[in-house]
Design brief:
Length: about 80
């Protein structure tokens, strides 16, 4: 999951940026609950530009669109 850096839009001191809703390590742990036999790993990256990420090591990549609150698939370059 790739998130673009942005300033928080909320006014509350309790509002969390979208990228902080998925805590490091917990996504991978959740996959292991449902698929313990599969070596699935979930990484989340916070970057200035999606093009800053080398996605060739990943099987799937998704970019968070904060305005629509949806992920969209990012094409993975050939390895």
């Amino acid at each position: 999951m790739v998130f673009l850096e942005h300033s928080p839009q909320g006014y509350s001191i309790f509002a969390r940026p979208d990228d902080q809703l998925v805590q490091t390590g917990y996504g991978t742990e959740t996959f292991h609950w449902f698929r313990p036999e599969q070596p699935i790993q979930l990484d989340h990256l916070v970057v200035a530009n999606a093009s800053d990420v080398d996605l060739r090591a990943y099987d799937e990549a998704f970019l968070w669109n904060s305005s629509t609150k949806e992920f969209r698939r990012i094409p993975i370059p050939a390895r």
